[in-house]
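Translate structure to sequence.
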């Protein structure tokens, strides 16, 4: 198979599995035993010097960082379905919210949880209240980030929202919980969750 996902269900690769289920394309999962330190072995470092998952290979192409993987997959395998056309006005919001998740939400919530002290003008995520307001604006009054049209941006942004709600790092405001519930109704997400759970059970994995 051309598409190979280096995977562990307790890593961000779990969300990439949802991406692959939405695409409906053939792929292989290659389990990486993170507890045994396999993600720091030379073969993995050759693909991603960060020694982190997810890693996606597509033939000779190697993509890391979950948002980048999502944008790559949508453009290559689902243009017009999961990715707006290059000349579509919706492309702007699509890219905005896809990149907002890793560059603003994740560090912003970590900063809040860990009581980081920093200058707002020096941090790309600004301040917590502004971040929360922006997140609410993204999903208020619409089914998905682009309105009625589900896109890869919802997997990237929405996957982050689901994770942060699950671990109580994000305030469970109705606008977020209702959005997460809508995402949870998608058959592809249900299949991905089931596959991740099955791997946890088969391998007897425990959260670290």
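Result:
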């Amino acid at each position: 198979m051309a598409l190979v996902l280096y995977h562990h269900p307790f890593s961000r690769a779990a969300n990439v599995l949802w991406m692959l289920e939405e695409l409906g394309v053939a792929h292989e999962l290659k389990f990486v035993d993170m507890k045994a330190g396999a993600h720091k072995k030379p073969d993995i470092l050759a693909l991603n010097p960060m020694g982190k998952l997810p890693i996606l290979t597509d033939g000779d192409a190697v993509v890391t960082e979950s948002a980048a993987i999502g944008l790559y997959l949508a453009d290559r395998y689902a243009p017009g379905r999961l990715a707006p056309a290059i000349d579509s006005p919706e492309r702007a919001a699509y890219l905005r919210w896809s990149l907002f998740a890793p560059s603003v939400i994740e560090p912003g919530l970590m900063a809040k949880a860990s009581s980081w002290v920093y200058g707002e003008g020096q941090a790309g995520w600004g301040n917590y209240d502004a971040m929360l307001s922006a997140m609410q604006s993204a999903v208020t009054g619409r089914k998905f980030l682009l309105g009625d049209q589900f896109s890869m941006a919802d997997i990237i942004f929405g996957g982050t929202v689901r994770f942060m709600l699950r671990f109580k790092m994000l305030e469970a405001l109705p606008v977020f919980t209702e959005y997460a519930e809508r995402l949870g109704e998608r058959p592809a997400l249900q299949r991905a969750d089931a596959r991740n759970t099955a791997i946890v059970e088969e391998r007897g994995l425990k959260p670290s």
